[in-house]
Amino acid sequence: MHPELKTKLGSLHTRNPILTASGCYGYGEEYSDVADAVHLGGIVTKSISPVRWYGNSPPRLAETGTGLINSIGLANVGADSFKTEIAPRLKSVNTKIIVSIAGKTIDDYELVVQKLEDANNIDGYELNISCPNVKEGGMAFSQNPSITEKLVKRVRKLTKRWIAAKLTPNVTKISEGALAAEAGGADAVSLINTLVGMAVDYRSRSPKIATITGGYSGPPVKPIALAKVWEVYNAVKIPIIGIGGITTWQDVLEFMIVGASAVQIGTALFTDPQLPEKINKRLIQYLEEEEIGAICEIIGTLRTDRPYNLGVPG
Amino acid sequence: MHPELKTKLGSLHTRNPILTASGCYGYGEEYSDVADAVHLGGIVTKSISPVRWYGNSPPRLAETGTGLINSIGLANVGADSFKTEIAPRLKSVNTKIIVSIAGKTIDDYELVVQKLEDANNIDGYELNISCPNVKEGGMAFSQNPSITEKLVKRVRKLTKRWIAAKLTPNVTKISEGALAAEAGGADAVSLINTLVGMAVDYRSRSPKIATITGGYSGPPVKPIALAKVWEVYNAVKIPIIGIGGITTWQDVLEFMIVGASAVQIGTALFTDPQLPEKINKRLIQYLEEEEIGAICEIIGTLRTDRPYNLGVPG
Amino acid sequence: MKFIDNARVIRNHKIRQDIHSMWLESPLICQNSSPGQFVHLRVNNSFSPLLRRPLSIGRVHGNELELVWRIVGKGTEILAEAKEGESVDLLGPLGKPYSISEHLETAILVAGGLGLPPLTYLYEKLIAAGVKTQLLLGVLNENSIPLSDKDPLFGSILITSEEGELFRRGLVTEPVIDSLQNLENNGGIGKTSLYSCGPWGLIKALKKIVPHMKLLSAEVSLEQQMGCGIGICQGCAVPTEDDNDPFQLVCKDGPVFPLNEVRIPDAS
Amino acid sequence: MKFIDNARVIRNHKIRQDIHSMWLESPLICQNSSPGQFVHLRVNNSFSPLLRRPLSIGRVHGNELELVWRIVGKGTEILAEAKEGESVDLLGPLGKPYSISEHLETAILVAGGLGLPPLTYLYEKLIAAGVKTQLLLGVLNENSIPLSDKDPLFGSILITSEEGELFRRGLVTEPVIDSLQNLENNGGIGKTSLYSCGPWGLIKALKKIVPHMKLLSAEVSLEQQMGCGIGICQGCAVPTEDDNDPFQLVCKDGPVFPLNEVRIPDAS
Ligand SMILES: Cc1cc2nc3c(=O)[nH]c(=O)nc-3n(C[C@H](O)[C@H](O)[C@H](O)COP(=O)(O)OP(=O)(O)OC[C@H]3O[C@@H](n4cnc5c(N)ncnc54)[C@H](O)[C@@H]3O)c2cc1C
Ligand SMILES: Cc1cc2nc3c(=O)[nH]c(=O)nc-3n(C[C@H](O)[C@H](O)[C@H](O)COP(=O)(O)OP(=O)(O)OC[C@H]3O[C@@H](n4cnc5c(N)ncnc54)[C@H](O)[C@@H]3O)c2cc1C
Ligand SMILES: Cc1cc2nc3c(=O)[nH]c(=O)nc-3n(C[C@H](O)[C@H](O)[C@H](O)COP(=O)(O)O)c2cc1C
Ligand SMILES: Cc1cc2nc3c(=O)[nH]c(=O)nc-3n(C[C@H](O)[C@H](O)[C@H](O)COP(=O)(O)O)c2cc1C
Ligand code: FES
Ligand code: FES
User: What is the pTM for the complete model shown?
Assistant: First the structure.
């Protein structure tokens, strides 16, 4: 028997648990030369704002250790171009398309949804209320649970489409934001967006990115992301999409074990756009070896019953 | 001319900017076989509680990527043993000794200070109000600025010794905690303590440490720590001790450039107890090459005046 | 069309202290590339280093392409250890190449240090197309020439060096000015293009010289920290002088830009 | 006294698939160590991997000591690449060694797989001291014997293997029981010590057998994830059966513990 990779995020069903994270796969088509979307559970687009945003001053990226700091500042084509030029072509992208939405005000989010409601080839929205690289809105929204709830509620009223709220880890208690998103009517929560981070060039005594601080992502954030997913899993009932530092099939299992129903891969795609396909192959193999019929069976199965669980010696 | 490594943390003057972080150098003597304290700006002891604490169930450590997750749970000998057995011997440890203090209640912190006030060989206290690995107190104190202020104030009343408050990065805005510590009368703030992190063994589906989540430290946290120091530097007037992921002399410069008056090295000491000595040598060399007379001159000298500071090509 | 190709290492050797040259077999990339484009390569199979590294496509001979790089950090260091027969994961060809006008008669190629590789590719292509082409290289000293003395191309390059006695002493901009002035005097300037790749100092200098000449075109190649290398992440933006379109992407709109559109960074 | 010593690699070779042996020159550590102790070593000069790796001190010959390890992850893998003449940064000797009573007449050494190295050291020391010593090794199959067939010591070891035909088939506990019963029958059990190092399965089995025998002592060696290796970080705690002193540190109170004080983990 072939094990199942399918997963469910409430009303959104995906063929496998691996989605691409916003900002790391363009609007859906850009990687088509080198990777086939048929291997993806879904694509979350670059965040779309009501109008075109140009983004922050360069430099916008700094590699640090095995992580990345970015300060793109949500440079994107804007909702109108997305709707008229890009969305129609997404028909040929064979996977679920989730449009990420960004804004400076709650009205902005409503505006984008209103613009996109009658666009085709969209399977849902992810509300990016967690970007650390914009002066207004962004991360500040998901740092405040009452704004989170209000924002999700207002978007919820405008659409029947699936909605996820994407949360920032730069908070004291992420589960409060997750509960607020749930109360607001979100179908799922996505976490984590990037951590506020900084890199300095000691020679010139300058910040390595122009905005001084930026968003930290990649393998170093994985332990933090896992802890956040676990915290949220113990607080909400809606499904969780785990994000942060995923580069291997084992990472995917870890996120699912602590409670994620699906995951998103971000930074690692720049290095290997074919990573989702490779990971899914290995997941199938693992499920076969372990005789697990469906990957969904492992969601939230962390064993917490063994206080003295000495790992070594084998 | 020989450049100066001396630094000042308010009333506490140290011969160089490198202190050892709490929990990573014992009570001061343990590394004496292999490293001479004369090379240290100071030692921050393992956190001391009113009575002996045994710590958390094992496993307590997990290496993850290039980071470490720990859940020691503040295992320590307690204030009485420290005072009678250890403190007297610290006379032979040739550097400043800062006693780190931990407690479940504010009373606990007062109790430890009261017990240690007439002990010798103590140059100051660091209030650990940021440990993520204890059920009561710990991190929760510095997640709440009003508790932070109250706690520091009450300790301030009991002692004339130098006091630093050590803050958790697991908050929405660390500068609020720093301001509270300053208002409470702290001489300095130390940051960061560890980030809440988690590691999972996908095979057994168990957490790699018994408390499920623990404190994440080491090189991966450096970008986050730098951003926190920068945030606090822009908020408070008291000196800052920068902590988090330091392994090189360049790291020390980076922390000082963003506003730290001194640093602490933690996890990296396990790998190289002689690291402070090595770093100080290289710092001297750097200052010589750059013709900088004293390391203090670089504190807070981050250049923020070059929005388009393209790093490459050279 | 872009490809991810596991290209076989034909040869990987040190040219000088810290400078390496590698020939790779990649029919897909060789057959689809033009001078000025680059590859974004993975130096190993792990995610440490995290990102791919961009390197200009150097000479292309049949199905083999050359990369030449200076070791500056861990990525370029690991790459220097790749053995013959091993494979290197290349994403490419990427970016916009140098543009070659149909009216082009004379080409002046100006390299600064490690800016040479894309210009050797362009040089061979232009020579083959019958364009009168001059390749100039400015280096600090002998140790920074990114080409072996024994390379057949070596003799064709006019090298200036800021230190040392072996080559014309001075900045590469001096012979550039000479050549341009000659062309202006003999009326050829209108059918001449200038192509350059090198550090900001060189670009700045060209920005001072070129506007006074009526060249067919003048293009330079830029570098910027990259994420994706293909126009997705918006990470490699550089500012333009145009407020209505304030940024361009080095990986997609460049790395080759018209010299007059390039904005010099505030810090340099 | 502990030292940090840059020990010179005398020899580093593969014994079998995934199992390596290295001889290092370290007068400081050799002259101050006893069997059962370990070194905490840095596999390279970077902080990647982050931590030192603990390895038991194997045989000590003069100023040279042996390490034997299985490649399980990045640290042990990097160590396998160390070349003759290079140096490895050792922190040691660390921990409490096996205790040797002055009344000891017979010693039974029971190794499970990679538990062998500290026991070869102990074996040679006891033999030299005139103690009747038996060294037993239990392995899964031929490929997991952490000693070369050509090693002079090879013939002195009684090997049991769970698979394969070359050695006594079965668990190492069987000959252990035989030996102990013989000693009990001939009255020697009171002057016999049992020393062991191996996986939890072995420790569990010994915990069932040993309490019924009136041995002089029975000690086993434990492993735990370590930070500092010297008793500072409190990271390597293992639980005891004693509620008033619930934890002991493998690096400082161990790695050798009296068998009766060892608590078997809940999970195993
Ligand atoms: C389009 C393009 C073409 C290039 N062609 C060449 C070439 O032909 N020969 C050559 O020697 N170099 C070339 N470079 C520069 C080369 O990419 C860097 O030297 C290399 O990435 C350094 O990697 P590292 O790991 O050794 O250094 P590290 O300093 O460890 O790199 C850290 C990070 O900074 C980035 N980085 C460092 N320097 C540069 C740089 N100058 N430009 C862009 N990113 C940088 C790295 O890619 C990496 O992400 C080119 C750069 C670009 C953008
Ligand atoms: C006192 C002591 C003596 C040891 N002696 C030997 C020996 O002689 N031969 C031998 O082959 N092995 C021995 N081990 C186990 C050895 O330390 C591990 O196999 C090794 O640390 C694995 O490192 P790695 O980087 O290859 O694996 P990774 O899995 O990449 O290591 C990740 C982390 O887990 C730790 N770790 C993994 N396995 C173990 C383990 N079994 N015990 C403790 N920490 C572990 C590593 O030190 C590292 O911090 C001993 C362990 C201890 C505690
Ligand atoms: C270059 C870059 C651009 C990003 N842009 C967005 C974005 O537009 N919207 C968003 O919600 N998240 C954005 N992110 C965050 C990622 O979607 C993801 O949450 C984060 O990077 C953590 O995952 P990772 O470690 O797998 O990259 C961006 C991340 C990077 C690195
Ligand atoms: C094993 C371990 C034990 C620690 N114990 C303490 C402690 O007792 N008190 C405290 O304030 N911080 C403690 N810390 C936190 C460190 O002092 C430091 O703040 C943190 O590790 C970040 O610095 P680093 O990345 O250099 O390790 C501990 C850290 C580790 C790794
Ligand atoms: S590197 Fe990603 S857009 Fe240029
Ligand atoms: S490893 Fe640090 S106390 Fe044992």
Answer: 0.97
